[in-house]
């Protein structure tokens, strides 16, 4: 039985749909970094996942460089020293990315300018106009 990763109350992904691969981390770190594969490459195939089709469509259409042309999301986690922490970090980042890109946007209700605001704007314009007229040269 595979573990289930819960994304929201109505959305979940089986852990078997996520491919995790241990790799060597980049950057400085002395001798340890050359011997230990502590970084994690997470690969999540959006096309072959158990997610509903509308959500797959949203995820595939988002403009993210981590999603390749085959519809595979690739996350590289190498922030921590241990493989287990990097594994948890990669899964957490995947869950956060799915949540962020499947949010339903509220429909925008256009607002109207109130009568009081229109009156204040008109008064300000008249005041400004009078001030500028007083700066002009006097004509006979």
What is the CATH third-level topology name? Double Stranded RNA Binding Domain
SSE series: EEEHEHEHH
Q: What summary fits the major beta sheet?
A: 3 strands, antiparallel
Report the CATH C-level class.
Alpha Beta
CATH architecture, by name, is 2-Layer Sandwich
Radius of gyration: 28 Å
Distance between the termini: 98 Å
In total, how many beta strands? 5
Alpha-beta classification: alpha+beta
Tally the helices: what do you get? 4
Total domain units: 1
For the biggest β-sheet, the strand order reads: 3-4-5
Assess the beta-strand content as a share of residues. Answer: 15-25%
Q: What low-confidence regions span 5 or more consecutive residues with pLDDT below 50?
A: none
Overall, the morphology is elongated
- Helical amount among residues, as a percent range? 25-40%
Mean pLDDT: 84
What's this model, at a glance?
This protein is α+β, with helices and mostly antiparallel strands. The chain has helices at 31-35, 53-61, 83-101, 115-135, and strands spanning 4-6, 12-14, 18-23, 39-45, 72-77.
């Amino acid at each position: 039985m595979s573990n289930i990763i819960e994304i929201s109350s109505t959305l979940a992904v089986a852990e078997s749909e996520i491919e995790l691969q241990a790799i060597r981390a980049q950057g400085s770190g002395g001798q340890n970094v050359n011997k230990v594969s502590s970084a994690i490459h997470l690969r999540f195939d959006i096309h072959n996942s158990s997610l509903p089709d509308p959500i797959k469509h949203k995820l595939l259409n988002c403009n993210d460089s981590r999603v390749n042309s085959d519809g595979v999301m690739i996350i590289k986690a190498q922030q921590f020293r241990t493989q287990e922490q990097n594994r948890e970090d990669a899964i957490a980042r995947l869950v956060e990315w799915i949540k962020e890109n499947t949010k339903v946007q509220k429909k925008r209700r256009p607002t109207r300018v109130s009568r009081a605001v229109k009156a204040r704007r008109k008064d300000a314009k008249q005041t400004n106009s009078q001030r500028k007229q007083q700066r002009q040269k006097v004509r006979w």
